[in-house]
Amino acid sequence: MNKVFLIGNLTRDPELTNTPAGVDVCRFSIAVNRGYGDNQATDFYNVTAWRGLGDTVSRYARKGHKVAVSGDIQLRQYEANDGTKRLAVDVIAQNVEFLTPKQEQPAELERTPVQPAKPAKPVQQKIEAFDDDGDIPF
């Protein structure tokens, strides 16, 4: 099973792009603290969110916001500018939860209110009368 759950702060604003097929892909990174006392350290993770999740993250998250990310770990090998091979750890997000309180978010990130739906017309049902002679009508 490949599953990771991280809570951390965005280190930069999310970047939303599209694949050549038109699929939304959002990339961002988070800083996650680990350890306690004098043994504290910070790890940095690259996160990729696809489609609607990526669009939502790009709209409502900004640098410094705290998020909870759950998803899969993906290892990627690449060649650095000096020719050495390096290994990168990426997280493919399946869920992102925004943990920064709403009052700490800038006004331009607040969601626009949803217009209430028009009330549906009442449905009138025809109820057939039956004789109450003890027989069940079905």
Structure, described:
The chain is mostly beta strands. Helices cover 7% and strands 43% of the residues. It contains 1 helix and 6 strands; from the N terminus they run E-E-E-E-H-E-E. The chain starts with a strand and ends in a 40-residue tail after the last strand. About 7% of the residues have low confidence.
Topology:
Elements: E1 4-10, E2 15-18, E3 24-34, E4 41-50, H1 51-60, E5 66-79, E6 85-98
Parallel strand pairs: 4-6
Antiparallel strand pairs: 1-3, 1-5, 2-3, 3-4, 5-6
Distance between the termini: 52 Å
Query: What is the H/E string?
Result: EEEEHEE
**Whole-number average pLDDT?**
83
Radius of gyration: 25 Å
Per DSSP, what share of the residues sits in E-state strands of 2 or more residues? 35-45%
Number of strands: 6
- List segments where confidence is low: pLDDT < 50 over at least 5 consecutive residues: 110-118
Instruction: Please tally the helical runs, counting DSSP H or I stretches of 4 or more residues.
Output: 1
Largest sheet: 5 strands, mixed, barrel
Helix-and-strand structural type: mainly beta
Query: What proportion of the residues is helical, as a percent range?
Result: under 10%
**Strand neighbour order, sheet with most strands:** 1-3-4-6-5
Q: Write down the overall geometry.
A: globular
